[in-house]
Every structure is written in structure tokens, then in C-alpha cells.
Amino acid sequence: MQSCRDDGSDTDIALNEPHLTLRDGTQVLIRRLVADDAALYPDFLSDVTAKDLRLRFFGPMREVSHELLDKLIHYDPARAMAFIAVDEQSRKMLGVVRLHDDTGGESAEFAVLVCSRLKSHGVGWLLMKHMIEFSRHKNLKTVRGQVLSENTTMLAMCAELGFHIADDPDEPGVKTVTLPSPTAHVGLR
After folding, report:
1. CATH: 3.40.630.30, 3.40.367.20, 2.60.40.10, 3.40.50.1100. Which one for 10-139?
2. Which residues are bridge partners to 179 per DSSP?
3. pLDDT in tens, 77-134
């Protein structure tokens, strides 16, 4: 990753746009999601299976509604951030990670979605690492997410990234993954 100033400004890391390489050699740009990226979503979502949408949104979903898409694209950067992975050659969106601050601003919840054909290629790993780095620069005390128990690939990735995994006491079949004080740098694979 390119270096960024460490003056407490999360704008620095949000504007940092690393050029990275997937395991298969695909050149990827990780950058902040902007409103114009709405045009990339239909093609991206056509590469996400119904099963993967269910794993992400915790319910059956054949397609993402215009209302939900609008909510995903338009967010308040003071309380949320989203990064996308873009194939540098085709300019197609390959995945997205979102981070929403809690009311107190000391912790945040993440969610990630990767096009199905590229699962296990490193897209999710790169997006999660970028989100963790962003949360570190934002001085968040914890980053957490909810993962369906059957989503073993996501749970394994979270464990590799240092997340603590526990049963969600309020939702059977759901695990809560928590990364306390993500201040230590997470190295690249």
C-alpha cells in the first residue's frame, strides 16, 4: 500500500488507492466507492449468485432493489465508508466492503460482497485488509460483523485476519466476528 499521513485524518487512507495483484495475476485497484459507481453495480451483481446474496443479506434475494442500491451507493462519509475492488483491465467491479460507525463512533460494523466467480481469489482478503487499515487510521476500538454459520469461507478468512468468532446470542445460526483494537498492521499475504 502507498504510505499515507498519520495525522488522524481518515481521509488519507480513504483516498489511498492501492494497485494490487490477485493470486491469478489480475491487476486490481482498491478505491473509495463513489456515486458514479452505481453504473458498475448491475454488471457486478449479475456475477453474484442468489446463494451469495443470501449469505451477505441473510435472506433470500434474487436481485438488489433500486432502493437498496441507492442506500448502498449514497452514504455519509462522516459515519460510513465503502471501498470497491476494480479490475484494472476490464474496469469491472469485483467486490465491495462497507464500514458503518456505531452511534458513539468508537466501533463499526463491516459487510463485504465479492462476485461469486472470484471467491477464493483474494478479492475479499484485499478488501478486508483495506477496511481494517482504514479502521486503524480512524482509531476505532473494534470492528465487527455478522456472518451466517454456514459461511465457512468467510469465517475462515475472519479467523486468519485475527477476528474473534463467537455465536451470536440473539440470532441462532449467526456468528459475530470481532476485531478488537485493530491498531496492529495486518500484513499482506
Report:
1. 3.40.630.30
2. 143
3. 888 999 999 999 999 999 999 999 988 888 999 999 999 887 888 899 999 999 999 9
Pair 30, 127: CB distance under 8 Å: yes
Q: Which residues neighbour 152 within 8 Å (Cβ) at sequence distance 6 or greater?
A: none
pLDDT of residue 5: 34
Supply 68's cell numbers: 437498496
Asked if 73 and 84 touch (Cβ cutoff 8 Å), the reply is no
| Closest C-alpha to 131, from 168, 84, 181 | 84
Strands across the sheet with 164-167, in order? 19-21, 27-32, 80-87, 93-101, 107-114, 142-148, 174-180, 164-167
Q: State pTM to two decimals.
A: 0.82
